[in-house]
Amino acid sequence: MVCDHFTSAELDRTLWNVAVTGAVVNDEQQAYIDSPTTVRCAPGREADADCDGALILQPRYSQGYLTAEDRRFDFVSGRIDTRGKLSLRHGTVSARIKLPAGQGVWPAFWALGNGSWPEAGEIDIMENVGDPEWVNAALHGPGYAGETPLVNRRYFSGRDATAWRVYSVACGADSIVFSVDDEVIYRVLRPMVEHYGRWVFDDPKYLILNVALGGNYPLKTNGIRSPYRGLPASTVERVRRNDVRLLVDWVRVDGE
Asked: Residue 200 sits in which domain range?
């Protein structure tokens, strides 16, 4: 088993890569940068009283930020992954996460296969687009990518999607089971996947944690087009005040 509790002052770069990219595929409104302003570890109870050390991914307002690809963005944010360092084929992945509030904020905990998308497969362990009532889990692959039919939401009473929660996925040879706080929210069996396309979940997947802003998925959920695609002025103001951040208490990988 591998477990990162983020208790040191620095991110463990033997386990995690920090993404630097201006390329987006869903019209998100941020560029990812490698900076302590967007990706950092807070030891002890600095980040939150309910955890002893945490990873913080925090979007920031940065009007006109120019990427290496000569693209301009008004926001920067954080994204880390374990590509080339840690992967899982069969087993369980879990993380204790506290989501940020704000319409159009798009945090995710997910896994990708090595190779082209969607042929290599994608497992969305947790996604949220700023709706306080739900998170979703999904699978993407050849024949079931993008608007995938293999998706399910977990609704919360009391509109508390931003509470500390444990998000997990158990990957087996013939099933993928998603859980929130040890409660199964979605069970996908091999025949369900093969109804749409090939099962591509026997190959290793690496992990990703990120916070996007706006883009196609938030837009389809909230219908907001101004001042940014999928991102309302109220959330822009929250980002400008540095009130939006994703906290991760720990990540565990147990399997092969």
From this structure: 2-255
